[in-house]
Design a protein that fits this description.
Helices cover about 75% and strands about 5% of the residues. With about 300 residues, the chain is mainly α. The chain has a three-stranded mixed beta sheet with strand order 2-1-3. Helix 2 packs antiparallel against helix 3 and helix 2 packs antiparallel against helix 9. It is globular.
Length: about 300
Amino acid sequence: MENLTSGPDILLLEGLKVTPQSSIPAFILLLLIYTFLMLSNISLMVLITLDPSLHQPMYLLFCNLGANDALGATAIVPRLLSDVFTPSSERYIRYSSCALQAFCAHVQGSAAHTVLMIMAFNRYVAICSPLRYATIMTPRMVVGLSVSAWGVALSMVLILVGLSVRLSRCRGVVSNPFCDNPSLFKLSCDSVLINNVYGLGYTVVLLGSSLGSITLTYLRIAVVCLTNRCRAKNSRALQTCATHLVLYVIMFVSGMVIIILHRFPDLSDHRKLAAILFHVVPPAMNGVIYGLQIKVVREKISIIFMKNR
């Protein structure tokens, strides 16, 4: 396969590395997480769409996060599931499919940051300028923020993956559970200096801007809450902000673990597992954490539990 005996457009994908004894448990666990992820996020988006009382900027902006999680997981998990019972020597994938999967994987990670940034802006306006909230967070503003979040993520990732696709290929093995940008440029024997420079800049800009903006936003919110004497309003504000911060911390820590593990080649298997978890665990938790914050959702869950008694 290293000599490209199957042709330059056919790659051998490592896939999910599991023993024959653990293949069934791994398949069931991953399938359950994926099913829960899709049901929770899609159900929440449908509920927000159909319930007029939830047509508020906070919930409409969350639909971006739910859609991003569902699309990103769908680009990765079904392929992982199909590879569990496929012999490692027969896990072939076309180069075009590999590049598309890498594009979707990086869009999911990038859009998660940009969407959480605009959600933080929404919280900032709601708490720091409540009297101007309705005039600032208009439907047009919500659409503009959403388009900006997706546009920035798509543009940055398009350049990132495009720089790798332009390279000629001399290898045919993807040593990763799924295709990502490093997997693409590692297939080449050309110089990847430009890829490394842009990749570093991409990471610094994305993580730096999201961490910086969210830190400054919540410091400002904290100051407003400390100077506000209304405890009821402060309690509601902190509850909403805590939910948003939990989502961000889970995502940020998951991403940083992968970046740190890249520095330790001996822990490559741990990095690969962390990469899979990054694309399924935070998205699965987003729907639950945000969904339980919505009163209508809590009421429906309570009704279901009451009926089952």
